[in-house]
């Protein structure tokens, strides 16, 4: 360290903004650490007097407000060889008279200029000379998201409904954790942190008109307000917005109980609108340094009521609150384009409030590619073309959990894709293990914090959110040096970077070619069943995965059919991917082993990283062998064409591959029993792949017995075929099909009527559309019909009264046209399976004249009165059956559950 006793004088405007003061503080500390005496200017500097200050001097100023900076610019003393700094941009300049100038385009620009100069002082161990450097962020919003949410529902509250209390969220009150987190964010030049909640207002504000809405005690409210105010003020000092995210329309439990309302409201009511307006106004007035993120989808029928609710309730409350707040910048309002098309909402809202943003998921709820395309790319481009700033949301990382991920080049290309392919200008980043914040899933004597464990995850995304277009070779050198410093040598840094880069290709490639969904319905590291690989239609695959979130390529069945017919392949093939994934996994394991000799620091962290590389290799091997088995089984299927005693040797070869895959899975289970508490952070019923039940099947050890049973069943059936014995499933595939029993109910809506479901009957009260084919289970049930025109154009509420707990059979048309109601999906709506019925019980259970076929779903309701209000789009109500009715899901046209699917081989 330099031992100079030279002094440096700092000049700046008095009464500077908090973030400018913070930047000056960091600059002062950097100078003092290098042995400088730091003096403060006694009087404001001008063009005429600054030379009279002896020695080295630094001036820090917002060029929009600082008279001195403006004088230096006007007289060409301060010149910019890049664009003049605007907004968060800054410029560092060595100017005549021995002065270094930090010129910021705003208070945040000044902050970032101070941080940049402080960093250079730390690296050089002195105040550099001859500086002429300008920089600015390429993305307007850059920051992480953390959740005031839990994975277990607290009845009678519903999904997402968690009052903010010390027992639910102890980390929220941990100021030391917040200091560390905010320090990381400012180091990475983040300017926003997103806090996700279902309905936070009832824990942060108290309304005179609605005292019953408060969900915490008076003492808890005071503590919450004190804590949240401290968080927003500390964040503001670092140039960071705190943005509070909430769902619509969610209301507090005591408020709902007093007014006899449901917790989740599908459309606005005068009382809910008034409550929300007053809550938002009180919140904005109390916390002027906080923004809001609005989810109009899921509970609210946003396509119908989105414009009304956003403008007349949310913005109205915001504007009312701002009347009483003296803010320098209007807080950001972000519209989450989740389960809603936001264009009409934004167009109507812009004249009322200019600082609007839109947000959409980058790769769904996984990380799959840096070349998103198709429908999803079009959605982003459309949002990016609005007069707002568009943000990509790197959401739940369901295919990366629970392992470490730090492939900088993959992440850099993702941010370039966000900019160029998706036309985005902001980043919203989930932690790798979102639902268990602040803890990592590793088994350790003391739980690891994600902040430290996943430091490279945060560092890489935010580095490329600031500037994605950095030179790749320079970046490789940067990360080698960064990792080398962390682990003790450049040799270690290079090998560990190689391991990160290689392993970072494995999960994205595997999921996008073989997965069921890019959503959090699937935990990829837990593997997949053979049925999910060879008969994905049975498991409701999400086409966006391969149509938008993957490069062009072929699914397993398509690949096998082309192979057998001699057709040429297009894009990625399954064999390409397993070859690539195997190569990447081997390279990662070799690289991390090579690093071992050179690691002299943070050995424990290195060992955990090495264990992850071994686990990823076992996972890849399990997939590779299962995919090879799937290719053999599908080849058998398309070759024998129902003559199941032929070419059994293909199944024998598949059994060998399946056994090898199971061996790898056992290795993975043995390893992860020592290293991980669980495989995914969202352990809820929404987790359905590979096994239904996220809480029961959250670790490899829970899934292993099912995979062992799968192999045992497969071997048994193959042996039967080889011996000429017809498997039981082929002798008697199904029991006789009988009609469902009826449960009594009363229809209370005058605009609807009852009818008997059978061939030839009309299903709507208007028009003459009639049934031409009906599943045996439905024939003779009592349905409810209504106006197709009204339900298609506006939506329609049907009131019924159930005498006992029952299931209501709802028919959805197999068409994506706007006139038809769409099935709620777990990829877009966390509440989609709250009443069961997520998966159809009868695929194509009804056929109508000249209309699309109809899938039948069964939704559970308790006894009593219910309003069936599903939103805009035509649908059918085809009967009410007892809740304990035995249901055998099937495809009425025998495409997804017949013997030709070969699912009987694994069962």
Provide structural commentary.
The protein is of the alpha/beta class and 907 residues long. The chain is 38% helix and 15% strand. The protein has 25 helices and 25 strands. An eight-stranded parallel beta barrel has the order 7-8-9-10-11-12-13-14. A six-stranded mixed sheet has the order 2-1-3-5-4-6, with helices on one face. Strands 17, 20, 21, 22, 24 and 25 form a six-stranded mixed sheet that branches. Strand 8, helix 5 and strand 9 form a beta-alpha-beta unit. The longest helix is centred in the last third of the chain and has 38 residues. The chain is globular. The model has no long low-confidence stretch (mean pLDDT 94).
Layout: helices, strands, pairs:
Elements: E1 7-12, H1 18-33, E2 37-40, E3 56-62, H2 67-74, E4 90-95, E5 99-104, H3 107-124, E6 132-135, E7 141-147, H4 175-187, E8 192-196, H5 218-237, E9 241-247, H6 253-258, H7 270-286, E10 290-295, H8 302-323, E11 333-336, H9 343-349, E12 356-361, H10 374-384, E13 389-394, H11 408-420, E14 426-429, H12 450-453, H13 455-466, H14 472-487, H15 490-503, H16 506-514, H17 530-534, H18 544-547, H19 556-565, H20 574-595, H21 603-640, H22 648-675, H23 700-722, H24 728-731, E15 745-747, E16 753-756, E17 771-774, E18 782-785, H25 788-793, E19 798-802, E20 806-813, E21 842-848, E22 854-861, E23 864-868, E24 876-882, E25 890-891
Parallel strand pairs: 1-2, 1-3, 3-5, 7-8, 7-14, 8-9, 9-10, 10-11, 11-12, 12-13, 13-14, 21-25
Antiparallel strand pairs: 4-5, 4-6, 15-19, 16-18, 17-21, 19-23, 20-22, 20-24, 21-22
Helix pairs in contact: 1-3, 4-5, 7-8, 8-9, 11-13, 14-15, 15-20, 16-20, 16-21, 19-21, 20-21, 21-22, 22-23
